Amino acid sequence: MAAAQGRLSDGAGGMDEAKGAEGEARDKGSTAPPAFTAAVDALRVARLRPQIEVEPTRAPQRLAPHAYALEAAVVDGDEDLADGRLVLLHDPAGHDAWRGTFRLVTLVRAELEPEMAADPLLPDVCWSWLTGALQARGLTYGEPSGTVTRAGSHYFGGLSARPPASQIEIRASWTPREGRGGVPDTAAHLASWCDLLAQVAGLPPAAPGDASVVTLPQRRDPQAR
Fold first, then answer.
1. Helix 34-45 vs helix 186-201: crossing angle, to nearest 10
2. 69, 30 contact by CB (below 8 A)
3. β-strands 79-95, 223-224: how paired?
4. Which stretches does UniProt call biased (Basic and acidic residues) (predicted)?
5. For residue 78, what pLDDT is reported?
6. What are the C-alpha distances in Å from 176 to residues 31, 61, 137, 138, 139?
7. Average pLDDT, the chain
8. Which residues 6+ apart lie within 8 Å of 193 measured at CB?
């Protein structure tokens, strides 16, 4: 799996690097709170689209007292069409910037056709995919924040035979509504996040007949796994 690399924002200005490994909750030697344990268990058993491969990874170490992370890739045969990382943060004491005790932080990226990357409306469309994916599943959330970045690469010298490449990257965080027992519906949030991944990868929507969903065309040269 091509894991998303980079730094994640906690939505409150803090940054930290997610370093790969097992994705176990960090509890500084103490027992994890029941609400956090329940939220993580829901992530582990969630049923997702077959084109999306998900596995745990080491969570950031300094964003919150407790954290759990997943990385995912949208797979077509031997090619990764998009990849990303989703981190669940929990601070039992609450966080002023989050306005809650849980926070979801994500990084999603994919390569694009250069002409699509040049569309001035692309950042707004990509952000609407995130909010639309959450709303489509009836999820309530607060304090959303994030960035949409597009980058282009041109190759020279020994690499000049490669065509120009463009990439879109979505970094975002939001506070999921806490339900019974103070536990958010993390399985539904994960499913929404996978909907976003699928849209960025250019897959058709999972629900047939949804003409309101616009997807990117599949990139010209998907990254070989």
1. 40
2. no
3. antiparallel
4. 16-29
5. 75
6. 23, 21, 13, 12, 8
7. 79
8. 84, 86, 104, 106, 108, 133
Torsion angle of C-alpha atoms 128, 133, 137, 138, degrees rounded to 10: -30
Beta bridge partners of 150: 168
The residues, ordered by sequence, that sit 6+ positions from 134 with a Cβ below 8 Å of its Cβ are 141, 174, 189, 192
Nearest to 109 by CA among 174, 189, 170, 164: 170
Sequence-separated contacts (24+) of 203-206 with Cβ below 8 Å: 203/49, 203/51, 203/74, 203/81, 206/49
| Residue 168 three-state SS | strand
pLDDT tens, 102-135?
999 999 998 887 677 677 888 899 999 999 999 9
Residue 78 in tokens: 């031997």
The single residue listed with the structure tokens 């949409």 is 148
Rounded to a whole number of angstroms, the distance between the first and last alpha carbons of the chain is 7
Cα 110 from Cα 156, distance rounded (Å): 22
Spatial CB neighbours of 167, under 8 Å, sequence gap ≥ 6:
109, 110, 111, 112, 117, 150, 151, 152, 153
Sign of the Cα pseudo-torsion (14, 41, 72, 99, in order): negative
Place of tokens 């077959």: 50
